[in-house]
Amino acid sequence: MSSRIEIVHWRGFASGLFRSALIALVGVGVSCSAGSDGSSGKGSSGTTASTGCGDGMIELGEDCDGTNVGSATCATATGNPAATGTLGCLNCKFYTNECSTGATGAGGYPSVGGYPSSGGFPTTTGGDTSGSSGGFGGITSSGGTTDIGGSGGTIGSNGGTSAASGGAGAVAAGGGSSNPTIPPDPGDCPNFANGTITYEGLDGIQVAVGTKASGPTAPMLFYWHGTGSTSGEYAFMAAPVASGITAAGGVIISFQNTTGGDLLSGTDIFGAGDFKLTDGLAACAVKNYNVDPRRIYTMGCSAGGLFAAAMAAERSNYIAAASSNSGGWVVPVTFEGSYTPPYMAVHGAPGTDVVVVDFSMTSATAEMAWKQRMGFSMDCNTGGGHCGGAGLAGDVWTFFQAHPYGVSPEPYASGLPSGFSSECTITK
Q: How many domains does the chain fold into?
């Protein structure tokens, strides 16, 4: 039985719940406040005297705070072995993954320097084709297309198109990328293992993991189910994404319940208060399960699709990219920061993908918000009914892999890659 046929049955028993809940919620205020709960006064792990991790001031027990690293550099933080690159700060401790030795053939993903440290994507020794200092150049730091950017460019001995010093490179030194802001370490972290957990008093949170990666390279997915469905929905609605996440040693989080629903999910099955939990879970996964801070994604179906699109905005400080299957926005949503996560909207035919609202229209509403912010988005019309986009989940995984946080230049700027579904077009 195809996934589209399965969802027709699901739509029938979910639609009544969607209708009654949405009508009951019309006119109810929704908090669109942005920002994570990063200033609670909790210090980072191991801090004994700090009372303000996240306040931007370096205090006793903290290496750094936010973007403030004091006078520290990659050289001082690593004792010189990785002396070049950009020193970051994560949970008030130095984040050195973007520091580099600058050695020949550093690059590689996820090994030999790897992403996001010293360039090179997606091959392992020297980047795409050739070059003594990053080859292809890498997504983030030395010799790459963003961040430090080396001397810019895509191919050549120092990241350039043809010349040794960058030639007509895509992005020059400094790049054009931004870095994710992972929420502060909550201190009390769950054990990441397959099963269901209770976290911060909320039960029914399903966790699926792969074998823990040897370094901070693993992806993470927050999946949101539709009204009347269950936290296990991702297994058939997003199977290629789930397989890709776990195969890479990553973490999947899928909520069954909510701390308090609102119109961000249309039917109040999820709400803005749930982001406090996603903040903690993201921080814990980065800290304890080698999740790459630049590879945290979200997706969902129906009410969950609405919520995934909302999360992309409300947690744009750490969501790398998002996809919704019959989702979008039914209310205005505030972006948390200046970054706009790339967005892949999947929906059915206008007038057909309808459960109280027309999801082709709610998808278009979100895409317009992305366009106004000059963010990248694409529209995928399956031509079918509600939540009929499971067949495009393989394309979603391709999209996620190409869009780590802050990737620049946009990899799909000149068009969708070969083999991508013809049902998808870049939003103009």
A: 1
